[in-house]
Amino acid sequence: MPDHPYANLLAGRKVLVTGAARGLGLAFATAIAEAGASVAMADILGDRVEESAAALKARGFHAVPLQLDLNDPASVQACASAAAQALGGLDGLVNNGAVTDSGGRNLTELDVATWDRVMNVNVRGTWLMTAACTPALRASGRGAVINLASDTPLWGAPNLLAYVASKSAIIGMTRSLARELGDANVTVNAVAPGLTLVEATEYVPQHRHDLYRNQRAIQREQVPDDVCGAVLFALSDLARFVTGQTLAVNGGFVMP
């Protein structure tokens, strides 16, 4: 197994990552494994998550693929239970799974079905997954939850209303959950990436990419690896007294 700069940061940890078949979720799962943790990788894309986990296992890491539909409460509970059983407990949860769906439509073009799907997956799914993992996280004694928010609520991105509203809710939920779980030394923090070059953002028009790049303090495109350090930090003992916080990782596009 090749050396890695964070090779021992999460040694012995057991972490569940949702939305881990591709994009940011896969980058997180890979970085977490490279940092020494065992990782359960959950996604609705069953074949794709199997392939992604197999690639990590081929490198000598402990990676377990799991099926997950965040729009189905029974699936969420089954996934959390399977992850804890497969890994022998849980020390960390990365709530990355989400849908955008509402991109490109203004408030009058947005339909109720799309609004409900975004809220059910992004907000309700995050709540249900955190609740389902709470017993294992409390038992850990060093549990950490990382909720993937977005910097879109921090600047009010237009024509993305349902997604922005859902990620605003994630930020608020993070603070409330931090207070609810702090008695068990479980930290809960949010990471809010900017527009990142992944498959899920391929629909974003070029002018939006240009807006981000040109108005960042660090004027370049954002890639998945740019976000991994914040997630590793929040999962590690370096952040044991950091909770209820939202860390914007966007090259200085917004500075909350």
TrEMBL record:
**Could you tell me the keywords of this UniProt record?**
Oxidoreductase
Keyword Ion transport in record: no
Q: Which InterPro entries match?
A: NAD(P)-bd_dom_sf (IPR036291), Sc_DH/Rdtase_CS (IPR020904), SDR_fam (IPR002347)
Q: Which regions span the lipid bilayer?
A: none
Name the CDD domains for this protein. SDR_c (cd05233)
Select a single GO molecular function from the record's annotations and give it.
Answer: oxidoreductase activity
Q: A Pfam family matched by this chain, by name?
A: adh_short_C2
Q: Record's superkingdom?
A: Bacteria
Q: Which SUPFAM superfamilies match?
A: NAD(P)-binding Rossmann-fold domains
The record, for Gene3D superfamilies, names: NAD(P)-binding Rossmann-like Domain
Q: Which family does it belong to?
A: Belongs to the short-chain dehydrogenases/reductases (SDR) family.
- Name the UniProt record assigns to this protein: Short-chain dehydrogenase
Q: What is the lineage of its organism?
A: Bacteria, Pseudomonadati, Pseudomonadota, Betaproteobacteria, Burkholderiales
